[in-house]
Each structure stands twice: as C-alpha cells, then as structure tokens.
Write a structure and sequence with these properties.
Elements lengths: L1 E4 L5 E7 L6 E7 L4 E5 L6 H11 L2 E6 L11 H8 L2 E5 L9 E3 L4 E4 L2 E7 L8 E5 L2 E5 L17 H12 L6 E4 L9 E2 H7 L8 H8 L9 H8 L7 E2 L1 H8 L6 E4 L3 H6 E2 L4 E2 L18 E4 L4 H12 L4 E4 L2 H7 L5 E2 L6 H22 L5 H17 L3 H6 L37
Parallel strand pairs: 4-5, 5-6, 6-7, 11-12, 14-19, 15-17, 15-18, 18-19
Antiparallel strand pairs: 1-2, 2-3, 3-4, 8-9, 9-10, 10-11, 12-13, 16-20
Length: 432
C-alpha cells in the first residue's frame, strides 16, 4: 500500500497492490473533508480498506469498479455494506445491485474535489475512467506500456482505439493510475505513454484491431467471478468466532478447505476436509448432501467461488469471512503442519535476487552481467503479459514444493502452487 499526496495537498492516493497478479486498487482521500473514494477494491482487500479508513479517520463516500472484472472478485458491495458508502456503476453495467449510475461527461463531488467520469469502452462495454486534480484512473483501458484485452466480455478493439484517443488528448502531465501493473511501474503519465506505449501510438485502426483480436484463454473461474461481480450470486459469510462456536456444538458443519493441498498441509482448522478448488466439480460427491457446509480458503476468494459452484449443483454453503487469515488474526486454534514458502514468493525472491546480482556484477565486474537482470526482467514481463510463469512451473516440480502423500479420498494431489492466472493485458508485442 503506497500513499501519494498531490502537490496541493488536497488529495491523498493510497495504492493497494495484489501480490499475485499485479491488480491495483486505490483509495482517494479528499483531505479537507476527510471523505474518500474506493476504486476497484478486491474482495480480499476489504479489511485493508476498512483499516486504512479507520487510521485516517476518513468516511468512505463512494466505491466503484472501473468495469465488470473477470479476473478477480470485486469487493465493492462488501466494502459499501461495511462502511455505508454509496456504490457507483457505469450506466452500461449489468450489475444486479442498487447503485448510482454514472456516464461519461458527468461529475460528482468528493468533498471539495470534482470527479469527472469518462466513458472508456473497449476492454468491456461498461468501462469507465475517472479524472480528478490531474490524476486519471484508467482501470483496464490503459496500462503502463500497454492496454487491456478486448477478446472477451463484449470487448471491442475498435472502441478501445477511440478510448485511447480520448486519453491522448489530456495534458501530458496527467498522472495515470492503471488497474494492473505488468511492468513494475504502478504509475505513469500521459506524456510517458505517448512516448513509449506501442498501442497508444498505433495510428492505423485496422492494425490496432488486428493486434488485439487474437483470442487467448479466459481467466480461470471467469463464469463464477462474473456471477459474483454482477451481483447474481453472493455466498453468505460466517465470522471466525461464530464458526468456532459452531464447531464446538452438537452438530458441527462440514468444513471444506479448497486451498491447494500444500496450503492445507501447512496449516488448517482441525476437522476440515481438503478438496482443492480445481478438483471440486469432480469430487462434489464427497460432500455430504444434507450437511451444513462452510468453505475455507486463505482469504475467502476461492471459498466464494467454491460456494457459488456448490450452489449451481444445488448445495448451499457459507464462506469463512476472511478465510484462514482472519481465523489466525482472531487467534483461534490452528493445526500446524509442514511450513513451506509459497511458490509465488519463491519466484519473487529468485527473480529479485538475480536482478540485483546482475546489476551489482554488471557495475563492479563486467557490463555483460547486466544481461542477467535483463533476462529475469523480461521473464517477469512475459509472465505478466501471458499468464505463464516458467520459473513457477519449474519450482512446482521440485521436491520441497510437492504435497505430502495423504491416504483416502482427500489425498488426491493438486498443483503445488499457482502460476499467474490469465491476465487482462492485451498482447501487443514488445513494450517500451
């Protein structure tokens, strides 16, 4: 979470970065009125937003998604419920929840700050951008060095071409806050993108459309994510303390843990049953039909997807609110197992170490060693743009990342870790 204050000290912008896929969310605070706007909060970030509001003694006035997300669960409804903030949504959004609808050209007040809404279709039909005090929040319409995909959810490369022309007309000093960071730069400017973004600089509409028309794999669990984000499904939650009390009762619920087997073996709630999310559909018969089911994962995201999958199969389930993170924070009992560093963190440690080593050796020994930094930097960029991380796939095959054998039906193995999921980035060739 990175705080940024505008030169006039009228706004503070806090950036919330998701560690797994480069998603960026924002809390914009009007300092004079102590009112705030939440942009693209993920479901697993709701607690962090609430904590940030409390620390700042700030009231959340509005919460919105810049578009209907297909790669993660939205936290807008949950955040609005917990804070009393108003939900905003583009007039083209198919959101099935009460929300104030906005359209391009409209403005609304955040304390003494005027927020201008810009239509930004292309990635999705309901995409919008927000402009305030020289800061532009682009969602997935424009990234540093790239732009959003247009090959699913009603996307239109031609519409995105027009959206980029709208952004291009803004002052070059306009600070851009994108919805994803795939190149290690969470903040850029219109001037920087005009100088180096190959998509923003493409002047031939037909060529632009052709570059963005290549179809790729959709994000994992996209259908379930969309149902939740559109308000078509919203699994009920149970607080850690309440679940703990029910587990001690006469008829405890069936506790279904949908994390990977490695995570489950590292730590779990006593009595829980492991069925990883990617195996749930094939193993649903292992869940007692009449049992009260509570689904557990690390933060509640995978559990929400699992609960909605169960609902489609006619099984009702609740979600442990906040997952194992909240359970541990509540200091409730955990059965500890073999601890192993998550694969994504192993990738970060190895890649970061190699970049630093290359820079150091290139400076002190021979400039050719800078190629080591370039190699790992290019690998990270490729992973972000394609959703495929070769280093993560290699690490998952190593002995310490393999799950321990387990007897019985719950012992079916699963992937030891998760490479980056399919992203929202367009395939645009080399980036500047």
């Amino acid at each position: 979470m990175t705080p940024t204050t505008t030169p006039a000290m009228t706004l503070t912008i806090e950036t919330f970065r998701a560690p797994d896929d480069g998603c960026l969310a924002y809390l914009v605070v009007d300092e004079a009125s102590r009112t705030a706007l939440a942009i693209d909060p993920r479901l697993d970030q709701v607690d962090r937003f609430v904590d940030a509001l409390a620390v700042r003694k700030t009231h959340l006035a509005y919460a919105l998604d810049t578009h209907t997300h297909a790669d993660h669960l939205s936290g807008v409804r949950r955040l609005a419920q917990r804070t009393g903030g108003a939900m905003l949504a583009h007039q083209s959004s198919k959101l099935r929840a009460p929300a104030r609808r906005v359209r391009g050209g409209e403005t609304f007040a955040l304390g003494g700050t005027t927020v201008t809404v810009l239509d930004a279709p292309g990635h999705t039909p309901d995409s919008l951008a927000l402009l305030l005090e020289g800061h532009l929040f682009t969602g997935d319409a424009l990234f540093a060095g790239g732009a959003g995909r247009t090959d699913f959810m009603g996307g239109s490369a031609s519409d995105l071409y027009d959206t980029l022309r709208t952004f291009e007309a803004l002052p070059e000093t306009t600070v851009v806050h994108p919805g994803h960071d795939y190149v290690g730069r969470a903040v850029t400017t219109i001037g920087e993108e005009k100088a180096q973004n190959p998509l923003l600089n493409e002047r031939d509409r037909a060529v632009f459309v052709g570059r963005l028309s290549v179809r790729r794999e959709p994000p994992a669990n996209m259908a379930a994510l969309l149902r939740h984000n559109l308000g078509e499904a919203d699994a009920p939650v149970v607080a850690p303390a309440e679940l703990h009390a029910r587990l001690d009762g006469d008829t405890p619920p069936f506790l279904l843990d949908v994390r990977t087997l490695l995570e489950f073996q590292s730590e779990r709630i006593e009595g829980s049953r492991s069925i990883p999310l990617d195996q749930l559909d094939a193993r649903i018969d292992e869940i007692p039909e009449r049992a009260e089911v509570v689904v557990v994962c690390r933060t509640g995201v995978r559990a929400t997807i699992a609960a909605e999958s169960l609902a489609r199969a006619g099984r009702q389930a609740q979600v442990l609110d906040g997952g194992m993170v909240a359970w541990r924070r509540a200091q409730l009992p955990i059965r500890e197992g073999r601890k192993r560093l998550a694969v994504d963190r192993q990738v970060q440690l190895i890649a970061g170490s190699m970049v630093l080593a290359g820079i150091a050796m290139g400076t002190l020994v021979n400039p050719w060693f800078l190629g080591l930094s370039a190699f790992f930097g290019a690998g990270l960029t490729f992973a972000g743009a394609t959703g495929t991380c070769g280093l993560a796939l290699l690490l998952m095959k190593l002995p310490w990342n393999r799950p321990l054998p387990v007897e019985g039906p719950a012992g079916a193995t699963c992937a030891a870790g998760n490479a980056a999921s399919s992203t929202c980035a367009a395939s645009a060739g080399p980036r500047g």
